[in-house]
Amino acid sequence: MTDAPLQGVGVLVTRPRVQASGLIEAIQSNGGNAICFPVIEIVPRDETAVANDAAELPAADIVIYVSRNAVAYGLQYAAGATTGATGPATAAAIQAAGRTVDFKPDDGFDSESLLEEPVLKDVAGKQIQIIHGGDGRELLAETLRERGARVDYLPVYERRIPDSSPELLAEVESAWRNGKINAVTIMSVETLENLCALLPGWCVQQLSSMPLVTPAARVIKEVLDRYPAAKTILASGPQAADMVQAIISIHSTQPGLAP
């Protein structure tokens, strides 16, 4: 492998702009060209509204942060409880803020993995607070309630579909038509849905033949439901290094990937 394994490879990075820098840097440090095309916008809720919501919730025995954004905008509203994180990036954010992470998945980074942790197996009668970004998957709360817990949500931010300027859309389509986009990152089902809503029609059609890199098996299922012949690649995790390694694996097995 060369010192620049992604030399000449263009990657469409769809993470929220505030979270894309790590992946962009990792792609570029491996010789690739990262094209930033955020399909989710993170907007914090009004602090007064969040504080009022938090004050009305009962004291929690267990607090679960579902993302780095939940930590960034919600850490100040929960203290003294057993603290859980859905994955390594969320756990790192909690620790960077000087708090202790009591549990996180040893292997995995989603609700299914978190629910396998021993501390969440016996929660009958426990008060659990999930700090999140509003709408999202209900699996975690539903399962914990089935196990006998009382579960409350504290939404501290919102995820919105951003406005993409005509100039940005034209740049993306031009790069794609000229062979300068050779892989697309898709972090979640919401990413896929927003990507299909935002991209120019011609680009959406190309998703069926473009290598699509994701850390989530459920994304692959959704992609294949829409595009049965799609080229999907499952990364080992959502961290920048995991995603880049998956992109490198495509390039190493398909030398003609880049123009």
Which descriptors would you attach to this protein?
single chain, 259 residues, alpha/beta, Rossmann fold, 2 domains, five-stranded parallel beta sheet, four-stranded parallel beta sheet, elongated
Structure notes:
The structure is a single chain. By secondary structure, this protein is of the alpha/beta class. It has two domains: 10-40 and 162-253, 3-Layer(aba) Sandwich (Rossmann fold), CATH 3.40.50.10090; 42-159, Rossmann fold, CATH 3.40.50.10090. The protein is 38% helix and 18% strand. The chain has eleven helices and eleven strands. The strands form three sheets. A five-stranded parallel β-sheet has the order 2-1-9-10-11, with helices on both faces. Strands 5-4-6-7 form a four-stranded parallel β-sheet, sandwiched between helices. A two-stranded antiparallel ribbon has the order 3-8. The mean pLDDT is 93.
Produce the secondary structure layout:
Elements: E1 10-13, H1 21-29, E2 33-36, E3 41-44, H2 47-56, E4 62-65, H3 68-74, E5 82-85, H4 88-96, H5 111-114, E6 127-132, H6 139-146, E7 150-155, E8 157-160, H7 166-177, E9 183-185, H8 189-198, H9 201-206, E10 211-214, H10 217-226, E11 231-234, H11 240-253
Parallel strand pairs: 1-2, 1-9, 4-5, 4-6, 6-7, 9-10, 10-11
Antiparallel strand pairs: 3-8
Order of helices and strands: EHEEHEHEHHEHEEHEHHEHEH
The description of the largest β-sheet is: 5 strands, parallel
Any idea what the CATH architecture of the largest domain is? 3-Layer(aba) Sandwich
Derived from helix and strand composition plus strand pairing, the structural class reads: alpha/beta
Strand order, largest beta sheet: 2-1-9-10-11
The CATH top-level class label of the largest domain: Alpha Beta
Oligomer: single chain
The poorly predicted ranges are none
How many structural domains? 2
Mean pLDDT across residues: 93
Assign a percent range to the helix content.
25-40%
Percent range for β-strand residues:
15-25%
Per DSSP, the total helix count is 11
Rg on CA atoms, Å: 20 Å
Give a count of the beta strands, DSSP E runs of length 2 or more: 11
And the CATH topology of the largest domain? Rossmann fold
